[in-house]
Amino acid sequence: MKLGCIGDDFTGSSDLGNTLSRQGMRVVQYSGIPTDPAAADVEAGVIALKSRSIDPDEAVAQSLAALDWLQAQGCTQFFFKYCSTFDSTPQGNIGPVADALADALGADPVIVCPAFPGTGRSVYQGHLFVKDTLLSESGMENHPLTPMTDPDLRRWMALQSRYPVGHVPAQTVFAGADAIASGLEAERQAGRRHVVVDAIRDEDLMQIGRAAAPLKLVTGGSGVALGLPANFGCTPGTPEWEGQSGPVLALSGSCSSATRAQVALHAAENPAREVLAEDIIEGRVTPAAVRDWALAQAGIPLVYSSADPDVVKAVQDRFGRAVAAEAIEEFFAGVARLAVAGGVTRIITAGGETSGAVIEALDLNELRIGPEIDPGVPALRAGPDLVVALKSGNFGAEDFFVKAAAMLGA
């Protein structure tokens, strides 16, 4: 194994796997920390953790354990993947994990770059944009678990990290890999270990990748990994893929504006069933009942709990944020487990927490990366009779559920 990657959620990890696979690396996504050695043909291993919203100390412990396994596989460079909207609170978890990994590897400087132009995320003058809107005005300020209220990545990272935060501006990035490397070195000499690097185009990401060749640790969204495979002699290609016949089920627990639009479009022409958080918590709806409904439908049935921010806040105020989130995750995990037992062979999930809960419930330890459905979302082979698609809440075209079902199908 050449490149060792640690993702803080399951959708983001498949997003990273998709990026590396399209650039020619043979990639496997591992659900949690493996106990056995990797297969000999794996060039990049992506360990998917469910650490984005847990206690920072536990996130650090899990990430360091993942690092130990990746080092044992012979990796020479490491990548810490977080969301392209930098999902975290001032109390963590990106800063503490980045600090711990940097300390363990003796890495300095460390790139911080969540840019992903293909999905409208760019970093300019140290600020994170979603298309033409500052992150803090994009809807992410209403995220139920990790509200992003400051688009300045330098300030946000400084609240979390023990180390000073530097910056390589766009003007330097536009000058190419050598200029970026010089900018990183200047920040290192100034004592700024973590360095936010601007990027607004895929070309910028490729140049950042070239500049990162000698670095032990890179952090960011999947976009900044675009230029890393070339450093290992890989060239772009299309991964092998064979779809799966059989019933399909879509599950959405994301409350992002992008997912709500996808749900609305899909529900207009396909069977869809909304489940309310309060009904789940108070036991008025069960996974078995919803599974039975889904199996009785034709087409692409969708089960969703993707409410507007005001509705989500009301539920959180009534039951508590942790109780509401855990109940919804456990519900979707139960539906997925029963659905697969009932013959479903294609599972589509929307939302990082939902996806992680489903993958853990199905005990899917290794996922082979397939072709891209939409930017950042690949098809995944989970077993001989099961394929999945794990969509981050903010990703995908409005007809994503239909596109995903078609790509996953035989």
Protein architecture, described:
With 410 residues, this protein is α/β, with parallel strands linked by helices. It has two domains: 3-232, 3-Layer(aba) Sandwich (Rossmann fold), CATH 3.40.50.10840; 248-408, 3-Layer(aba) Sandwich (Molybdenum Cofactor Biosythetic Enzyme, Chain A). 38% of the residues lie in helices and 20% in strands. The chain contains 14 helices and 18 strands. The radius of gyration is 20 Å and the shape is globular.
- Total domain units: 2
Number of helices: 14
Mean pLDDT metric: 94
Q: Strand percentage, roughly? A: 15-25%
Largest sheet: 15 strands, mixed
Give the strand order, joined by hyphens, for the main sheet: 9-10-5-11-4-1-3-2-16-17-18-15-12-14-13
CATH level-four homologous superfamily name of the largest domain: Putative sugar-binding, N-terminal domain
Helix content range = 25-40%
Q: Low-confidence parts, pLDDT < 50 over ≥5 residues?
A: none
Number of strands: 18
Coarse morphology: globular
CATH architecture of the largest domain: 3-Layer(aba) Sandwich
CATH C-level class of the largest domain: Alpha Beta
Rounded to an integer in angstroms, the radius of gyration calculated over CA atoms is: 20 Å
Supply the helix-strand structural class: alpha/beta
Q: What is the third-level CATH name, the topology of the largest domain?
A: Rossmann fold
Distance between the termini: 31 Å
Features:
410 residues, alpha/beta, Rossmann fold, Molybdenum Cofactor Biosythetic Enzyme, Chain A, 15-stranded mixed beta sheet, 14 helices, 38% helix
